[in-house]
Amino acid sequence: MKLIFFGSSHGVPEANRRCSSTLIEVGENRYFIDMGTQSIEQLITRNIPIESVKAVFVTHMHGDHSNGLISFIDLCNWYFKKAAPTVCLPGDMERAKNAIAAWLSCNGTAMRDLDFRRVEEGVVFDDGTLRVTAYRTKHIEYSYAYLVEAEGKRVLFSGDLCHKGPANDFPIEVLDSPLDLAICESAHFKATEYIPLLKGNKNLKKLCFNHYSYAFLASVLEAKAVFSQDIDTLLATDGTEIEI
Question: Is 160 exposed, middle or buried (0-12, 13-18, 19+ CB in 10 A)?
Answer without folding.
Answer: buried
